[in-house]
Amino acid sequence: MVSDDAFRVYGIDLGTTYSAIAYVDEIGKPAVCRNTDSLETTPSVVFFENADNVVVGSVAKNSVVTHGDRVVSLIKRQMGTKATFEFDGKTYSPESISSLILRQLAQDAVDLHGAPATKAVITVPAYFGMLERDATRTAGVLAGLDVIGIVPEPVAAALHYEATTSASDKTILVYDLGGGTFDTTVISVSDNEIVVLCTDGDDHLGGADWDARLHRHLLDAFREHVPPDVDPEDDEEFLQTLAKTAEDTKKQLSKVESRPVPLRGAGVSARVEVTRAEFESLTEDLLAKTVEIVRRTLATLEQKAPGRTIDEVLLVGGSTRMPAVAARLRAEFGWDPKLHDPDLAVAKGAALYALGRVVHREAEEKGVDAAVETIAAKTGLSTQKLRTIADKETRNVLPKAFGVKLVDTEAPDWQSKPTRYYVEHLVHANDSLPAEGELSAATIYDGQNAVEIELYEQSGAVAGREMGENKHLNDGAGTIDGLPSLPAGSPVEIKMLVDNEGTLQVQATEMSTGKELVIKVRVSVLSTEEVEEAAKVVAGLTVSG
Questions:
Q1: By residue range, what is the domain housing residue 267?
Q2: What's the whole-model pTM score?
Q3: Cβ contacts of residue 375 below 8 Å, gap of 6+?
Q4: Per-residue pLDDT tens for 9-32?
Q5: Pairing of strands 170-177, 182-189
Q6: Pseudo-torsion of CA 234, 240, 243, 249, nearest 10°?
Q7: Please, are residues 30 and 160 in contact by the beta-carbon 8 Å criterion?
Q8: Among positive and negative, which fits the CA dihedral 280, 282, 287, 292?
Q9: Is-cis flag, bond preceding 116, omega within 30?
Q10: Quick count: other Cβ atoms within 10 Å of Cβ 358?
C-alpha cells in the first residue's frame, strides 16, 4: 500500500453507464478500488433521495423503478451543454451531477486506503471537444478533487496495453464503444511516447442505444400477449424494469445464441424468446455507424501519414463484448481485434498517467532524478518503474475545430439578411496540439468603425457554412472599437492558438490602425460565478453508495 498520501493519485474512468477508479499499487501494477458492493465498476446513476441526500451506483440504478423522476442517468451525454435538472428547489448542471458520481468513487478509494483521495486524472472520450473536457474537469473540482490531468480514454487504454504487453513501435487503432459514446483513435506507441495521430467518433452513440433497441423489441413482443384495450406503456414500473431486463439480456446474448425472457406487466405474464441473430439484425445500423466512423478515421490517417498501416486493433468499452463487433471488423477490414480488459483498461491506464503527472510535477522543482528518488521512497515503487512511467510522453490532437464567425458575403441576399453567417476554422479537427492558425478577414461596410469577433467550437473536420453544429464559447467574444470610419474591405488579421490544456487565445488586428483585440478563454460552459454557485449546492449534499 502507498505510504504517503501526498503521492497517492488515482485514475478515474467517468463513464456514461459505468465508472471506475484505479491506482498504482506498491509493485507498480494498476489496481481498481472496489465499491461498497465489492464490484470494480459503479453504475453512473444518481438518485436524489431527498433535499439533503443522494445515492450513487447500483441502489440508484434500481431506484429508477420506483422513483424514476428523481433518478439521473447517462449524464455524460449532457456534458458540455447548458442542460439543467431541478430537484427539491435546487438546480443542477451536468457538471454538478457528474461531481456526485466522482465523490462516491473518491469515497470508495478512501474506504480502501483510509486516507482522502484528492489528486486524480479523469478520462474523457477522444471525441469530446474542449467544452466537454472542461466540463469534466469542472466536475472533478466540484467533487473536491485536484484534477491533475484530463486524458482521452483511448490514450489511457493504450498506456495500459503497452504497460501490460510491452507493445512498442506499433500503430494501434482503439475501437472504444462505451455505454453512451463511441470513438475510434489511431495511436502510435513507442518506447518513450504515445502519439495520437487522429480520432473521430460520436458522443451520442453507445451501448445504451443497443439497449434501447432491445427494450423496444421486447415491448413490441410483449404487446402480442396483452389484451388490445391495455397499453403496457401505461405501467411505468414495468417500463423501468424492462430497461434493466433489456441491458441484462444484451449481455447474456454475448455468451449464448438465444435467451428466453420472462416479462410481467399490465397484469399479464409472458415469455419472449430473443435470439442473438434477431438482436444483431435490430442493431445492424448502429454497428454500421461505427464502421463508417472507422473508415473516416482511416481516411484521415492516410491524409496525415500516407502508407501508415494498423498493427493492432484494441476493443475497449463493455459493449465491445458483443460478438458482432469483432466479427464485423474482421469482415470489413481483415483485422484480428483484441478484447483488452474492456471495462477497466481505461481506469488502469489513467492511474499510470496520473502517476506520471506527479513525477513530472516533482521534476519541475527537483529535476527528474531527485523526483524519482523522492517518490520511490514515499510510495515503495521502484525507481526503474517510476522512470519508465515518467519517461512516457503523450501527445494529443484537437478533437474538434475552432473558428470565428464571419458574414457570408457570398450569399446573394446577405445585405438584406444579416444573419447569413458561417464559421471559418482556424484550427482543425485532428490538428496536433498545440495547434495554431490564422485568417485574413475584412470589414464589410463602408464607414464601419468596429469589428466584432466571436469564437466557436465546431464538430467535424470540414469547414462549415452553417451555424447549426457550432457551440459558442463562454466569454469567447470581443470587439475592436474606436476605429475611424473604415472603407469596406479593410483588412483584419486573426491568429488563433490552442494549447495542450485547452486554453484558446485569439489575437485580432485591424491593420490600418494597428488596434488589437486579444481574447484568452478557458474553453468552458459554466462561468466562474456559476461554478462557485454549483459548488455551494453540491457541498450541502450527503452522497452514499
A1: 207-282
A2: 0.86
A3: 7, 358, 359, 362, 381, 386
A4: 999 999 999 999 999 888 888 999
A5: antiparallel
A6: -100
A7: yes
A8: positive
A9: no
A10: 24
